[in-house]
Specification:
two-stranded antiparallel ribbon; single chain; two-stranded antiparallel sheet; 7 helices; 241 residues
């Protein structure tokens, strides 16, 4: 992928400051959705900038990933319903943990997972010159603290039951997150389990709870179900692969 994907082509034109998410032979660039903001697309810009065959300018890290354009601000505010972090840098503390960059209280946990399956965040810094792992780890801590505080009083939340991230839900697919707009009482085991690199002890607590206490509900032939919502007496029929 690093060498063969035409990353520069996904700029749409040579003067674009962004990479674009969607293209198809039938609809071309009709959706015109830019890859911007603190989310799961960081790895896309890193691969594109470092490609020896179809690279893009290194400046796109700032114009794309750390974007502060009107569209980026609108997207961030619309996602979480707050202006915290709408210009990439955040600086606020949530449940006693400071979030240097990121939207709202950090967004769904997959923001801290997908890019780092192929890129180690521990040895590199972000646009604020802070270690990436500091931000990703703090997002996991905030996510767990939100479940402990449980401001909406959902059933089943706690220190060993957390992991708000995008998954199946009683009402379909939702990017579950620790904020008022995106918390519906649905917990996703992989949210906590995929955070092992950041929160090993807390993730192990969740793992034991999901397997030992809730295993008869959540675990089957392929492992854990995608998500569950105790208040709705609902367990996802699908698995997270």
């Amino acid at each position: 992928m690093w060498e063969t994907v035409e990353w520069d082509w996904y700029r749409e034109n040579p003067k674009s400051d962004f990479l674009y998410w969607h293209w198809s032979p039938r609809w071309a660039w009709r959706i015109h959705h830019t890859l911007i903001g603190f989310n799961e697309v960081m790895i896309t810009y890193l691969l594109a900038m470092s490609s020896p065959t179809h690279g893009v300018p290194a400046e796109m890290y700032y114009s794309g990933w750390a974007n502060q354009s009107t569209n980026s601000v609108k997207l961030s505010c619309g996602l979480v319903g707050t202006k915290d972090g709408d210009h990439y840098a955040n600086g606020h503390s949530y449940y006693g943990t400071k979030l240097d960059v990121g939207v709202g209280t950090g967004g769904p946990l997959f923001f801290t997972h997908y890019s780092y399956i192929g890129f180690d965040p521990h040895s590199c810094t972000i646009a604020t010159h802070l270690p990436i792992s500091r931000t990703t780890g703090n997002i996991a801590l905030i996510n767990r603290a939100h479940s402990i505080a449980n401001p909406k009083h959902f059933e089943g939340y706690g220190a060993n039951a957390w992991g708000l991230t995008a998954s199946d839900g009683p009402w379909g697919y939702v990017a579950h997150a620790p904020d008022n707009n995106n918390d519906f009482g649905t917990l996703t085991p992989t949210g906590a389990l995929a955070s092992f690199p950041y929160t090993p002890e807390a993730s192990m607590e969740a793992f034991k709870h999901y397997y030992r206490d809730l295993g008869s509900q959540l675990w089957d032939i392929y492992g854990p179900r995608d998500a569950f919502n105790p208040g709705q007496d609902w367990v996802s029929p699908i698995y997270m692969d």
